[in-house]
Amino acid sequence: MARILGRIYKGFQRLGSLSSTQTPLRHPPPTVSVRGTTFIRTMVALPSLFSSKPRDFSLPNSSWGSEMMRLYEHYNSQCEVETEGGEKQEGPWQRLPSYNRLLKYATGGVYLSKIIQSKARLFTRNIRDPGAAFEYVLFVNSEEQKCICIFQAGHLLEGPPGHVHGGAIATMIDTVTGTHATILSGPVMTANLNINYRSPIPLGSTVLLESSLEKKEGRKTLISCKVTSSDGSKLHTETTALFLSINFSHLLLGE
Amino acid sequence: MARILGRIYKGFQRLGSLSSTQTPLRHPPPTVSVRGTTFIRTMVALPSLFSSKPRDFSLPNSSWGSEMMRLYEHYNSQCEVETEGGEKQEGPWQRLPSYNRLLKYATGGVYLSKIIQSKARLFTRNIRDPGAAFEYVLFVNSEEQKCICIFQAGHLLEGPPGHVHGGAIATMIDTVTGTHATILSGPVMTANLNINYRSPIPLGSTVLLESSLEKKEGRKTLISCKVTSSDGSKLHTETTALFLSINFSHLLLGE
Fold this sequence. Notes:
The structure is a homodimer. Chain A is an alpha+beta fold. Chain A has six helices and twelve strands. Chain A has helices at 2-22, 48-51, 66-76, 114-119, 166-185, 248-253; strands spanning 31-34, 37-42, 80-82, 88-90, 94-96, 109-111, 134-141, 146-153, 188-197, 206-217, 220-229, 235-245. Chain A has a seven-stranded antiparallel sheet with strand order 5-7-8-10-11-12-9. In chain A, a hairpin with a 2-residue loop joins strand 10 (206-217) and strand 11. Chain A is globular, with a radius of gyration of 19 Å. The two termini of chain A are 31 Å apart. Strand 9 (188-197) of chain A pairs antiparallel with strand 9 (188-197) of chain B.
């Protein structure tokens, strides 16, 4: 698993470094037209803001409640195990780091404007105030082809009074299943989300998302995902999610 | 249409005023246990912050681009029409106001804590910086049983580089179809969202969501929704959304 993650990680890094070394900053930026819409095409190094050490949003912070911490420690303790000889080695689970820009790794991109490009932030990490919105951490288990996400839903995610917005739940499901599909199949795009909402999630509570591979066939990766209460006793949603493999450079370079 | 909306509006107002006059602020707040979870139950008037004139987020602001404004004016001009005699009367479309708390209307609620209750904000209106996240306005047409939403996707909604997060699109679909179902059937909860993603939405662009009633049967309301480019030429997503009628007081009062 770590090897796969390592490859993905290095692939993204390579993309980033390639793009930043091969194509220096140019003025004015080149444009590209996709189905009648003119985009600014950028293959430039981002400001040092992004090239220095970025904040990893999936590490504990002061807003994490006891349930979030308990579950984090449960999975995190299984990321490294000790052999009988006292050596440390990879455990069954691996924690995934999380940043507020995909462009940390891949500095290419096709944007409608330079302003949008410079200000763009990952939807699930767009609020810096700890605990206010999406607090979550993902762990993957390659042996079991599973992905786990511990999610604490902050006060800015309200839908029905006192409960999490259905769209915020869908957002976490898309995030977890999409990450899982990417690990299993490389770059993908969401083709279908079919979400059954069984019971509402109280605002402020911590829930578990668990995704499993159902099927891989050609370009298709089918993932199932359950959202349950943190002790697993209550089912909140059940989902099937279909992803299609894509050539990432199409999206990234507008080619 | 306006009559229906008026009834809903007055119903919410009545709920709010009833709850705030019948149950004054008490310390400590009463608690209620729902399936093993203890909530703070509040039936109190919210601070004057919410009882004075709230900001209507669905009115134009400086961040709205030309496409957003053009479509807004197109539908807004059909909200009031002039008769042959020169009198003004309701047109086929009605604009829906939009606030950042449901509790503007209904001051009851069941929350895990008083802090969460006081800080809770509607997910789609949780960022005050104009243009940064969800800019949208809904219009309803009772004659055609349709709902239209004009949506400009801000830079904080990024998923794939340069494009809107699938969860942010799902959030707008849930918002539009849920509002439509509520107008048609009274209080509802989302039971199923089945979203087919056909083509990604460039970050910063303006798109149209159009929802239509498919079927009403007992407690079920089935709505379909398309997301297209602002000129309707490009299909981004197709969705069916199922809603179940609920007794709103169950959710609101924890009873």
